[in-house]
Amino acid sequence: MDEGLADVLHRVVMLLGEAARRRTGGPDGLTYSQIRLLGTLEDIEPTTQHRLAQALLVSDPAISRALRPLQADGLVQITVDPEHARRRLVRLTEAGREAFHTTGESLDEEFRAALVAAGFPYDRYLEDTLRLAELLASD
């Protein structure tokens, strides 16, 4: 099979997402999509709903729907932007930050342990992936 880099990256991202969904889904747990949203929000907060949607590569209505349960659970705060009444600003609450770090870190540790147990060179993988992300971001 002759796959290009983009095909391999897409497949890896999809498989990681699916593995994370299997481990984090549940009646009381955050879903993988919610973990990803909270992590992205932590990186760019405070931000508008529109900017958050752009960062996650989803539509504005999709981000609006995704934020509703997180707001109801007290994990995010949504306020009217004082500079523009039609814009909504989104921030993590302390509970949201804690939930993200608790769930995200345990998921990260689980993946790390599984890769190391399989003999995968995790540290090298992480180093190379970070370098690739920097290259792609600089384009």
Describe, in short, the structure shown.
The protein has 139 residues and is of the alpha+beta class.
Mean pLDDT: 87
Through-space gap between termini: 28 Å
Order of helices and strands: HHEHHEEHH
- The parts where pLDDT drops under 50 for at least 5 residues are none
CATH H-level superfamily title: Winged helix-like DNA-binding domain superfamily/Winged helix DNA-binding domain
Q: Which radius of gyration do the C-alpha atoms yield?
A: 17 Å
Number of strands: 3
Give the domain tally.
1
Architecture per CATH nomenclature, i.e. the level-2 architecture = Orthogonal Bundle
What structural class do helix, strand and pairing data support?
alpha+beta
> What is the percentage of strand-forming residues?
5-15%
Features:
3 strands; 139 residues; DNA-binding transcription factor activity; MarR family transcriptional regulator; WH_DNA-bd_sf; single chain; three-stranded antiparallel β-sheet; alpha+beta; Arc Repressor Mutant, subunit A
Describe the protein's architecture and organization:
The protein is α+β, with helices and mostly antiparallel strands and 139 residues long. The protein has one domain: Arc Repressor Mutant, subunit A, CATH 1.10.10. The protein has six helices and three strands; from the N terminus they run H-H-E-H-H-E-E-H-H. It has helices at residues 5-24, 32-44, 49-56, 60-72, 94-117, 122-137, and strands at residues 47-48, 76-81, 84-92. The protein has a three-stranded antiparallel beta sheet with strand order 1-3-2. Helix 2 crosses helix 5 and helix 3 crosses helix 4. The longest helix is centred in the C-terminal third of the chain and has 24 residues, at 94-117.
